[in-house]
Design a protein that fits this description.
Distance between the termini: 27 Å
Order of helices and strands: EHEHEHEEHEEEEHEEHHEHHHH
Helix content: 40-55%
Shape: globular
CATH class of the largest domain: Alpha Beta
Number of domains: 2
Number of helices: 11
Largest sheet: 10 strands, mixed
Number of strands: 12
Strand content: 15-25%
């Protein structure tokens, strides 16, 4: 395995407005030991042309550390990531995943700070690898709003009914110290923030964990909850999930214009309920999930979400037998891995 080498995957879909800025920020990184794999989910705009033009003009990106893969159909986020890790490197590349110690995922609508990758990886490599004390299995970063520089989120948290929210508590960090890069300050473990999950927009994990856990669950199509599902598995193995705020990036808010549409609510709630069923035992579903789901429906659910919720409840009820198979499969995988990799807190 190449020392500290990282595989970076960017999944694009109609990303023509910001992909070049994202690629430039990667080429501008102080961390250089990476291979960048861009997977296009069958974009209908000029995304692919923009990527090719940038690659041809950028001397810091070449065939030795870059590959563009064009899919002929949209596999969703998790499907595209898994295709890159399990299909491309096993069937279509001379490079093996054994060459990579880390897997880093970036959204195409991010501009990452020049030290973002160094600090993402730092969160994964500061722990004692032998004995597994405080072993970190997945890490995220600080996402800032591009327009005003204000924190968008510091990772995510989940409620008892698996409603997710972003951590935006700026009391947890010294934003000026982070963004202005006080050269007298050295980041350390005390800066890491424990989170329920690290969001897939700016995400790093150990490659061996991703491979052994079978990657993302591609049932979370087209997006939402795949990274939460993954982080819950990582935690069941005894590994930590943190955010290092010194790994920060700016996010183009316009790229999220599809949020809060009918489709968004349907896919969000469908995958939320799916994730709850797969990652909760039967008693917790009855005693905890249903209780807090009713409370949420009465107090916070908006009327325009009701059609999506009804459809989500029905589709997940129909797929419950299939989810049981997934639960058993996950249990077997994690039980086997615990014997090898389990960490003690």
């Amino acid at each position: 395995m190449m020392e500290d080498c990282a595989l970076i995957i960017i999944v694009t879909y109609n990303s023509e407005n910001f992909i070049e800025k994202c690629l430039f920020s990667i080429a501008n990184q102080n961390f250089k030991n990476y291979f960048l794999l861009v997977i296009d989910n069958n974009s209908g705009d000029s995304t692919v042309d923009r990527i090719k033009q940038y690659k041809n003009a950028e001397s810091r990106i070449s065939s030795t550390n870059f590959k563009l893969v064009q899919l002929n159909k949209n596999l969703g986020f998790s499907g595209a990531v898994d295709y890159g890790v399990f299909n491309y490197f096993s069937k279509k590349s001379r490079i093996s995943t054994d060459n990579f110690k880390y897997l880093i995922l970036l959204n195409p609508d991010l501009i990452i700070d020049e030290d973002a990758l160094i600090n993402l990886i730092y969160a994964l490599k500061t722990d004692k690898e032998e004995g597994c004390e405080n072993y970190i299995g997945a890490a995220g970063g600080l996402i800032l709003d591009y327009s005003n520089g204000e924190p968008s989120h510091l990772g995510g948290k989940i409620d008892f009914n698996f409603i997710t929210s972003h951590i935006k508590n700026t009391d947890l960090i010294n934003l000026n110290k982070i963004v202005e890069k006080d050269n007298n300050y050295v980041t350390g473990k005390s800066d890491f923030i424990d989170v329920d999950y690290a969001t897939g927009a700016l995400f790093a994990t150990r490659m061996f964990l991703f491979l052994k856990l079978g990657g993302f669950d591609t049932g979370y199509r087209p997006a939402y909850f795949e990274e939460l599902d993954y982080c819950l598995k990582v935690k069941r193995l005894g590994f930590g999930v943190v955010v290092n705020p010194f790994a920060f990036a700016k996010h183009f808010e316009s790229a999220s214009s599809g949020k809060f549409s009918d489709n968004f609510y349907y896919f969000y709630h469908k995958n939320r309920i799916r994730c709850a069923i797969i990652n909760s035992n039967f008693l917790n579903i009855l005693k905890i999930f249903f209780k807090y789901e009713i409370i949420w429906l009465k107090s916070k659910a908006t009327r325009n979400q009701i059609p999506a919720l009804i459809k989500s409840y029905l589709i997940n009820w129909l797929f419950c037998p299939y989810y049981l198979i997934i639960k058993i499969k996950n249990f077997i995988i994690i039980a086997r891995l615990k014997k090898i990799y389990a960490c003690r807190s």
